[in-house]
Backbone:
């Protein structure tokens, strides 16, 4: 055998060995070249009505980005972990992702308590954390730092939008029920402070603080019925809010006091309620189906059809768009845009881009990434729960508002 033939044969055998061990060489190189993002979220328990659609939206956007050539010529890759709604589990996962998986960035977390825990870890580890799902305003305000960026709205934005609408009601005696942890406390504080600012004569007659994930709300329902409140605010969310509404329905609670839930109008929560939805409730919404919303945002209809096709293909039980899907979709594109503008994955360079701020257009409107605190500001929608065709609940009488400026949302 000639030297050339021997070399060729040896190379062929080596390639065969590499293929057997690692799969196609091109695929291995592409995977090694990926921009890796460790995504931590609550994929079990009360959060799944939001997090399952969120993951689908994230995956859809990632596929679009990668099909278009990726970012800086590299594919995006999200590596998922379940935090089980526990801060210590999330921090454990974050350490593993950073130290063992060698991710470039961290992302995720629907729980505000979990988000704050990961944010603290990111600050110490000097790893940029994109908070894609949690809502507390303290993340980028009181506890803000350069290694955290918030790609979705915070509670201040939709709490103020809801308080603005609630201030037009004739009621002055208020009560509330909110989960007793970071999100519920921050949400109620923001809502009540702004409602008092707009309508100084309102009075708080009762507070209720069930634990996050509480399954039996009967003591709180009884307390609300006996409070003498004319209206009450709910900061419950996800499966817990759904359970609360179903348990309160036989007592006529929502007929005896005006119900103002912070998130029930999102299809993530409203769709599962069906005919048990509390008609007349004033709430925030992701009303992709509303004629007025579609007229203001012509690209929304095409995105809706695309998402339905995607979710159906991936076996989603309910493939209609949810707020969680919009959060995931927008977050992937915002992360990609920040890296693209920075022309690098170096966290300091990406942070420099975020601190300058930028705007992006999405099917539901403009999202501002505010430079002063690296906080996203998307449009906010509020409306009234009504029963649509065939017993399907919707949110109607939609009002859209967009807050802008540092710490000046909706003023």
Residues:
């Amino acid at each position: 055998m000639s030297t050339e033939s021997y070399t060729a044969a040896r190379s062929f055998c080596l390639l065969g060995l590499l293929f057997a061990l690692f799969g196609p060489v091109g695929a291995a190189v592409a995977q090694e070249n990926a921009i890796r993002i460790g995504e931590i979220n609550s994929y079990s328990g009360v959060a799944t009505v939001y997090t399952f659609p969120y993951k689908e939206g994230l995956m859809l956007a990632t596929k679009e980005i990668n099909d278009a050539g990726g970012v800086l010529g590299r594919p995006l890759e999200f590596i998922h972990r379940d935090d089980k709604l526990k801060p210590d589990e999330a921090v454990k996962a974050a350490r593993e992702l950073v130290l063992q998986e060698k991710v470039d960035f961290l992302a995720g977390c629907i729980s505000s308590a979990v988000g704050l825990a990961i944010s603290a870890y990111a600050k110490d580890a000097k790893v940029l954390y994109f908070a894609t799902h949690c809502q507390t305003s303290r993340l980028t305000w009181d506890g803000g730092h350069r290694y955290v960026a918030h790609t979705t709205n915070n509670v201040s934005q939709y709490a103020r939008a809801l308080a603005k609408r609630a201030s037009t009601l004739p009621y002055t005696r208020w009560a509330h029920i909110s989960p007793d942890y970071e999100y519920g406390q921050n949400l109620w504080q923001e809502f009540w402070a702004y409602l008092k600012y707009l309508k100084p004569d309102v009075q708080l007659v009762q507070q209720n603080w069930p634990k996050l994930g509480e399954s039996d709300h009967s003591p709180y329902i009884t307390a609300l019925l006996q409070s003498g409140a004319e209206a009450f605010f709910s900061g419950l969310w996800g499966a817990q809010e759904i359970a609360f509404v179903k348990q309160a329905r036989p007592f006529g609670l929502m007929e005896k006091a005006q119900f103002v839930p912070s998130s029930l109008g999102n299809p993530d929560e409203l769709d599962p309620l069906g005919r048990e939805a509390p008609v007349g409730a004033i709430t925030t919404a992701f009303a992709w189906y509303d004629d007025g919303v579609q007229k203001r945002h012509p690209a929304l209809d095409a995105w809706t059809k695309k998402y339905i096709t995607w979710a159906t293909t991936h076996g989603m039980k309910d493939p209609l768009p949810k707020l969680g899907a919009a959060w995931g979709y927008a977050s992937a594109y915002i992360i990609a845009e920040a890296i693209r503008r920075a022309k690098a994955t170096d966290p300091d360079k990406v942070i420099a881009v975020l601190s300058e701020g930028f705007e992006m257009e999405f099917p539901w409107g403009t999202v501002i990434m505010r430079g002063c605190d690296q906080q996203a500001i998307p449009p906010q929608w509020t409306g009234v729960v009504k029963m649509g065709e065939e017993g399907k609940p919707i949110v109607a009488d939609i009002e859209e508002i967009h807050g802008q400026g540092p710490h000046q949302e909706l003023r």
In short: Residues 3-22 form the longest helix (20 residues). Residues 1-30, 405-411 have pLDDT under 50 and may be disordered.
